[in-house]
Amino acid sequence: MTTVIEISGLLEKQLQLLVDIGLYSSKTEAVRDAVRRLLNSVNIADVAVKIYSQGRISLAYASELAEQSIPEFFIKLLGKGIVPRLVSSRKNVEEVVENIDKKKVLVFDVSSLYVTYLSETLDVFRRILTYLSEKRNVRNIVSPDTILHLKFIELKRLISFGHRSIELPLTVANVDANEFKKFKNKFIKEQSLTTAEMTTQYLAYRLKAILVTDDYKALEIANKTNVYAISTMSLLNYAKYHRIISDVKYAEAREKLETIYSMATG
């Protein structure tokens, strides 16, 4: 992406003077140096915290701006007394079961993957996704940009590019660049999500799939596009409904998830 900056009048003359005396090779180089100096004088992480606290961007996008992983930024928010906005949707389990059986496609965004990571419930969700794939013929999908966004090797190794992962039954779906651009222009006017989250929204919309997310901003976009969205907790309740895991495993996993949600809701 290229940004065009218009400079005229006295400011342009002053820039040209810097070029004429040999301080810079061009006015473009002078402007770039000025921008770098400006950014170095600002704590971008604190700016990301402020914008996030105003409810304007997702947790993943805020962490990306701050150049931190989601868990690192999560802790930073808590340290500043700011409540991360993770949402456990309270959909009726029968409704969730009906929609999964009908749509047959789940698209996972970064918030859901990180919630399973932070709550240490990856083994439980590996079993759930395996059941969905093998017993219910449900496709479990992530976007290519989601893979790029993941910072932890424990998560990256769970998903293999181009084929189904042995570790976790998630497959990577292709994103048509032109169609994605049309979708973004229609539904996402302002940059409030990461590219990974936007492509996830696009896939859920195009495939008429179920979006699995725990981020409030992602849920806002899903509501605009009429995409049916569920939380990671909803999947756990689905597992209990079909007795995919024992009551003990369910109770343990639910407690771990609720710990993350409670940290996020205060």
What does this 3D model show about the protein?
With 266 residues, the chain is of the alpha/beta class. Helix content is 60%, strand content 6%. The chain contains 15 helices and 5 strands. Strands 3-2-1-4-5 form a 5-stranded parallel sheet, with helices on both faces. Helix 13 links the parallel strand 4 and strand 5 (228-230). Helix 4 crosses helix 5 (70-79). The longest helix has 19 residues, at 247-265.
Summarize the structure.
By secondary structure, the protein is an alpha/beta fold. 60% of the residues lie in helices and 6% in strands.
**Span of the ends, CA to CA:** 38 Å
* Number of structural units classed as domains: 2
Q: Secondary-structure element order, as H and E?
A: HHHHHHEHHEHHEHHEHEHH
Main pleated sheet:
5 strands, parallel
**Known CATH architecture of the largest domain:** 3-Layer(aba) Sandwich
Query: What is the third-level CATH name, the topology of the largest domain?
Result: Rossmann fold
The number of distinct β-strands equals 5
Give me some keywords for this one.
alpha/beta, elongated, 266 residues, single chain, Rossmann fold
Topology record:
Blueprint: H1 9-20, H2 27-41, H3 44-53, H4 59-65, H5 70-79, H6 93-103, E1 105-108, H7 110-118, H8 122-135, E2 139-142, H9 144-149, H10 153-156, E3 171-172, H11 177-187, H12 195-206, E4 210-212, H13 216-225, E5 228-230, H14 232-241, H15 247-265
Parallel strand pairs: 1-2, 1-4, 2-3, 4-5
Helix pairs in contact: 3-4, 4-5, 6-14, 14-15
